[in-house]
Amino acid sequence: MACFGLVVADDLTGATDTGHEFAARGLRTLVSVGAATAAEDGPPADVRVVDTDSRYVDPEVAAAAVRRVIGAHDASFVYKKVDSTLRGNVVAEVDAALDATGADLALVAPASPRNGRTTVEGYHLVDGVLVAETDAGDDPERPVDTSHLPTRFAGSSYPVVRLPVDRVAAGADAVADDLRATAGEGRAVVVADAVHERHLEALATGAAKSGCSVVYVGSAGLARYVKTPPPTADGPPSVPTRERSVLCVVGSTNPATLEQVRALHAESVVPLDLEAAIDDPGAASDAAASACAARLDDAGFAALVSAPDSDAPARALEAGRRLGLEGTSVRTHIAEALAGTVERLWHRDDDTPESLFVTGGAVASDVFDVLDAEGVLLSGEAVEEGIPLGCVAGGVADETPVVTKAGAFGSPGAIRKCAARLGGRDEFE
């Protein structure tokens, strides 16, 4: 499939928040999920965003997925989306993108100053804290053990060159000169400092001016400034404001999300029975679907939550141990129960939810899978920074308004804001 641009992401919420930066410029942007990764799948789009769902798989599997997706598309630029806290198979996937494109350079800038992510003297920080000392350093699947970008990329197959902040701050021409000089020495991974939005703009503009072929590597921040052709006449779909029922599925255990859950009215929250979900995900889905249906019928809003408090993950792991299950299996069963609840609600004999909110990348991917969705067409509107609005593309929930959110993103009232926008009301009681 020919497209203006291709974004390859390793999880769904990251795919949508990065794709939003292109949709916001009027480009028709499709985020593909699950099996819908082949070039022939999905409606036409200016920018195709593909979620390889590869953050926690083996590095070789992740690299193969990246190569496969890039090989299936004829794009004018390739953007390798990486986690803004450096989790996942970052090095293996960037090397694979450089291999698959044959580009001169990979320009790596994971900073997103609007979201508190900055890179200074090669060190990556979240709200001023070294990333390895944040929750990413305690990631249960694959903790981030270094905050130093050059060290993080030490295992790359390519030389790693640092582009310091003074050169980035000097502007696009200086960046272009440095990129040309680096490319003249051979293919390489360039890791760049960025503290302000203007630094990201200088990086993207400098790359375009350099004359080098570049794979852009970053979180949503750098995507905001990548140079693109003009949008097509179709443009992104609109999501009119009107009253709708809203189903929220909260699968993230990030502290930011837990705070957002606490800001919800208690009567709207449906806590997933964790012990039941770990023992029998199907039965837990049945019970949760019944409770959510009752709240949707009564108030038009239900929030299905896997971790209503900070102790919930520990309780889930303890329940798993009693059943002889390790942490990965526990998380898989909980995600299965959450997605199963959504599946049951969309196959009710009576009214299905009229809009959907999901937070937690892995859970979001599972939810779209049970809905048989091809993906999300982004509207170009964001409820908050990094929290985009779109419509489900394909499947049983086709054209349903949807918001996806990364676990670490958003203000304390973010979920309430998303529900209000989706539901077309000032507030849900």
Condensed summary:
The chain is of the alpha/beta class and 429 residues long. 38% of the residues lie in helices and 22% in strands.
Entry keywords:
429 residues; alpha/beta; Rossmann fold; Molybdenum Cofactor Biosythetic Enzyme, Chain A; 2 domains; 15-stranded mixed sheet; three-stranded antiparallel sheet; globular; carbohydrate metabolism; nucleotide-binding
Structural write-up:
The structure is a single chain. This protein has a 15-stranded mixed sheet, sandwiched between helices. The protein contains 15 helices and 18 strands. With 429 residues, it is an alpha/beta fold. The protein has two domains: 2-223, 3-Layer(aba) Sandwich (Rossmann fold), CATH 3.40.50.10840; 246-373 and 381-423, Molybdenum Cofactor Biosythetic Enzyme, Chain A (3-Layer(aba) Sandwich), CATH 3.40.980.20. The chain has helices spanning 12-23, 59-71, 90-101, 149-152, 165-169, 172-184, 197-210, 220-223, 255-262, 274-279, 281-299, 312-322, 327-346, 361-370, 414-423, and strands at residues 2-9, 29-32, 47-51, 74-81, 105-109, 117-120, 123-126, 129-130, 160-163, 188-192, 214-218, 246-250, 269-271, 301-305, 356-359, 375-384, 387-393, 401-405. The model has no long low-confidence stretch (mean pLDDT 93). The longest helix has 20 residues, at 327-346. A hairpin with a 2-residue loop joins β6 and β7 (123-126). It is globular. Residues 6-225 form the Four-carbon acid sugar kinase N-terminal domain. Keywords: ATP-binding, Carbohydrate metabolism, Kinase, Nucleotide-binding, Transferase.
